[in-house]
Amino acid sequence: MPPNSPEQSGSGRTETRAVTDVCVGQIRESVPAADAAPGLRLGAAGLRLGAAGPVDVAGARSLQREAFDLGEDEPYPDAQRTLRVVVRDGSGGPEVVSCLTLLQQTLCVRGAEMAMGGVRHVVTRPEAQNQGYAGALMCDTLRAMRAHKIPGSVLFPFSFRYYRKFGYELAGNYCQFWCRPNCLPAFAERQRCRSAQPGDQEALAALDRARAWNRTFSLIRDLSRWEAIGRDPTRMVTLFPGPTWIEGYIVWMETRDHYGGRVLRLLDLAAGSTAAWRGLVGWLSQSPVESIEWCASATDLGVSGLLRSPAPLREGFKPRAIATVRPFFQFRVVHLEAALRALLPAQPPGAFALALQVHDDVLPENGVPLAIRGTPGGALLTPAEPADPMLSADIRVFSQLYCGYMSPTEAVSQGLAQVSCPLALETAEALFPVGEPFIPELDRF
Fold first, then answer.
1. Of 20, 118, 310, 337, most Cβ neighbours within 10 A?
2. Which residues of the chain register pLDDT less than 50?
3. What 8-state DSSP symbol labels residue 387?
4. What pLDDT, on a 0 to 100 scale, did the predictor assign at position 23?
């Protein structure tokens, strides 16, 4: 079964009377279970839904390993991940029929850091599919995140349409770049590149955090994540050192293509100077592989110079490179108030007001109108007032505005959002400017 494979839910309305044990990271508490999914009657069906207990872990892990061909090693620390399950009473006792993993990570949006819940490895037993279990689990997981005021959630879907039912929407693309090494320029700066050492991990974490702060929307790798990357024998890190600090790096691995040819896959490539770009590109030009693949942002691909390679033209190599834009991940705002508060320090100075009316069919609590107000002391979040200029949107569209995937003007022009007056649109443009949300392949979960 592919990653985050969809399960179609049935019809009818769910009655939920049970109390579920919620766990996000190391936080646990009991909250009322939410409406799960059409066609699934919790309690009446003898089900337990929520964070996995000790007796559930082995069954959930086995189900995920079989579905996704996972190994025993887990790249994320235990404190950052939680198993959530649907357990059904069977003839042989309780059994896990559906499960997912919830990752607690740090998201950087417009320079503001906030907690994020990442959903991955959603799977249901084959004989229990199309009965609403995965839908119930997704709704319960969203409720759990909202109970702990987690601002937003990211997932890398197999089906964008399926997860759109739960309020997620496309939030980032990538440019799949392919070329031959000998079509790249052999810049002399390549000689400065070297392999990473254990002592470099702190500098790598600092460089990555600085890059995330300059992006519209990105995940942050802390020191423990870099240490885990350093321990992974399948991932290599090549550095470009500067006079006083690391100016760039490549995280890569070698695979094989369909014909058995060696492929160098760039899981992440970052450079903080033109010299670093030349050094890393020059290092790639000397790779003893058949081809190079990189899932890049449009900005990085342009800055790298790979779209206008100054390398000497080699006859017979047509095309010199291929770049294809593909959809990558989905995002949804989970707790509207927490998400807006997290962005207040990043809001521009000045006197302004913008009311937000968000329609959320999965988490209707997000429908309370709120207003962002500019004051001499900074931006504030208050209840909306009738006279405030207002922007209205579905949670899916608003999530795209929040992360910078789409501008308010683009949303209004397509009929995806509404404004009460021209001032509302002008203010929304200032508060939610369009950018380029991007998550490197290294951070895909």
1. 118
2. 1-3, 5-39, 41-44
3. T
4. 34
Same domain, 189 and 286: yes
pLDDT number for residue 390: 98
- Domain membership flag for residue 421: yes
Kindly state whether residues 351 and 312 are assigned to the same domain: no
Report the candidate in 186, 230, 128, 221 with the shortest Cα–Cα distance to residue 441. Answer: 221
Tell whether 262 and 221 lie within a shared domain: yes
User: What would the DSSP string read from start to end of 173-187?
Assistant: EEEEEEE-GGGS---
CATH (domain of 189): 3.40.630.30
Q: Which domain holds residue 366?
A: 333-431
* CA torsion, ordered 292, 214, 221, 403, to nearest 10 deg: -90
Cα 317 versus chain centre, distance: 36
Q: What is the CATH number of the domain that holds 368?
A: 3.30.1050.10
In the prediction, which pLDDT does 320 show? Answer: 82
Q: What is the dihedral of CA 68, 72, 78, 84, to 10 degrees?
A: 40
Query: What residue type is 13 in one-letter code?
Result: R
The residue type of 292 is I
Cβ-based neighbour number of residue 242 at 10 Å: 15
> Do 215 and 285 share a structural domain?
yes
pLDDT of residue 187: 97
Measured CA angle at 84 (ends 108, 154), to 5 deg: 25
Please report whether residue 436 resides in a domain: no
Q: Determine the Cα–Cα distance for residues 13 and 136; give it in Å rounded to an integer.
A: 11
Residues 157 and 187 in one domain: no
Report the alpha-carbon distance of residue 369 to residue 356 in Å, rounded: 6
Beta-bridged to residue 294, according to DSSP, are 177, 266
For residue 439, give Cα distances in angstroms to 4, 31, 216: 17, 32, 11
Helix/strand/coil for 42 = coil
**Whether residues 257 and 127 fall in one domain:** no
Q: Is residue 171 part of a domain?
A: no
pLDDT of residue 314: 75
DSSP-assigned states of every residue in 314-361 = PTT--SSEEEEEEEEEEEEES-HHHHHHHHGGGSPSSS-EEEEEEE-S
- Upstream peptide bond of 319 is cis (omega within 30 degrees of 0): yes
Same domain, 288 and 354: no
Q: Which residues pair with 419 in a beta bridge?
A: 391
d(CA 138, CA 68): 18
Beta carbons of 129 and 6 less than 8 angstroms apart: no
Q: Specify the residue for token string 């991007």.
A: 438
- pTM (2 d.p.): 0.87
Look at the chain and report how many structural domains it folds into. 3
Determine, yes or no, domain membership for 147.
yes
